[in-house]
Amino acid sequence: MADEKTKVMRMAAPKKKILFVVMDGLGDRGCKALGGKTPLEHTSTPNLDWFAANGSSGIMDIIAPGVGPGSDTAHLSLLGYDPHKVYTGRGPFEAAGIGLIGKRGDVAFRCNFSTVNDKFDVVDRRAGRVKSPETTELIKALSGIVIDGIEVLVKEGTEHRAALLLRGKGLDPDVTDTDPHDVAKVLTSKGRTKGAELTASVVNKFVRLSYEKMKDHPVNVERRKKGLPEANILLTRGAGSFPDILPFTEKNKMSAACVAGVGMIKGICGICGLDVIDVPNECTGGLDTNMIKKADTALNALKKYDFVLMNVKAPDLSGHDGKAEEKCSTIKKLDEMAGHLRKNLTNDVVIAFTADHCTPCEIGDHTGDPVPLTVYTESIVSDAAVKFSESGCAVGRIGRIRGHDLLQICLDLANRSEKFGA
Ligand code: ZN
Ligand code: ZN
Question: Ligand 2 center to residue 316 CA distance, Å?
Answer without folding.
Answer: 5
